[in-house]
Amino acid sequence: VLIYTRISSDVQEHDSHARQEQKVREVFARQGIDGGDVLVIRETGNADVSRHREELSKLLDAVKDGTVTVVDLADLTRLARGPELAAIIDQIVAHGARVVSGDGFDSDQAK
The pTM is what? Predict the structure, then answer.
């Protein structure tokens, strides 16, 4: 299980990495996901598709190599927005992993 948090700027201090992680752990409890052995990846910076996002690359590598089978987020916008979001989710799911978010998304339910 992997928790991915991202804050875009200092403006988002109210939604810090710790707060996002806590929200995800609450989702674990509601959905019966074992949150014992969790990898946490924290990224700071905007989701501009024109720049390399090192931490997102780590997330995708962990999914591709099978280290991670569930990716949890406070909300889907932490990954990306627009068409890039759908592409990232498709890539994660194509490698057999599940995406769950605090805003109600569950790729297992979307099938």
Answer: 0.77
